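A reminder from the course coordinator: this example appears on the midterm review sheet, so study it carefully.

Given structure:
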């Protein structure tokens, strides 16, 4: 009996975790949601899922991404499972305020590559009544907070950390481990360049890289 109640509570909790905030029709207030995590954690998939649901609810949706990320396509947010929504690539985050078309929901992908003005841009949009959904890497390849992400996480109403699976031990992964020695902060790539790792396996990998370089 106790087990049954417990499993019901767990089910209720798991249900609530994945229900994102929605607009009440009567009073349109804006807010900021952040979806963050390591490489291969499904951030873009989660962004697209939320935007698709907003579209189904009859809301207008726009997406912006930094023009630096041209891995797949100039005009689409493309996640690793090909579930794409078209978007506008831009050079500077302030252009979001200039280029947006009165959408009620604005998605921003690969937000870690934007300048720090993105904080001001998201706050301004939220104050204008826009639901802002920001997806990005929370940490760079050294395990440090990445670009405007920590500030956005601080001011957001809702923060969701999604996890990958550690490719060394199979635990939940939070870090993006770079397999090559390249020192530049921005290095796009996929499975040949990065590995999702848990904190423990990430630190072991970093020490091994250090030893190799000395
Ligand atoms: Zn691990």
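Designed residues:
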């Amino acid at each position: 009996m106790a087990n049954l109640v417990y499993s019901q509570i767990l089910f209720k909790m798991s249900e609530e975790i994945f229900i994102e905030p929605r607009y009440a029709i009567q009073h349109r207030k804006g807010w900021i949601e952040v979806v963050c995590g390591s490489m291969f954690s499904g951030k873009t998939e989660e962004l697209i899922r939320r935007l698709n649901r907003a579209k189904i609810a009859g809301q207008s949706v726009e997406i912006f991404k930094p023009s630096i990320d041209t891995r797949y396509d100039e005009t689409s947010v493309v996640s690793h499972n090909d579930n794409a929504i078209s978007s506008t690539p831009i050079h500077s985050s302030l252009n979001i305020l200039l280029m947006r078309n009165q959408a009620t929901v604005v998605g921003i992908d690969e937000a870690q590559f934007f300048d720090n003005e993105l904080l001001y841009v998201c706050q301004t949009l939220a104050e204008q009544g826009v639901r802002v959904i920001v997806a990005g890497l929370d940490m760079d390849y050294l395990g440090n907070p990445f670009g405007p992400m920590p500030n956005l996480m601080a001011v957001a109403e809702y923060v969701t950390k999604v996890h990958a699976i550690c490719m060394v031990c199979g635990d939940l992964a939070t870090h993006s481990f770079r397999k090559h020695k390249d020192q530049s902060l921005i290095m796009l790539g996929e499975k040949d360049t990065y590995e999702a790792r848990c904190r423990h396996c990430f630190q072991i990998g970093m020490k091994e890289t250090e030893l190799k370089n000395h």
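Residues 166, 168-169, 171, 197-198, 200-201 surround zinc ion (CB under 6 Å). The radius of gyration is 18 Å.
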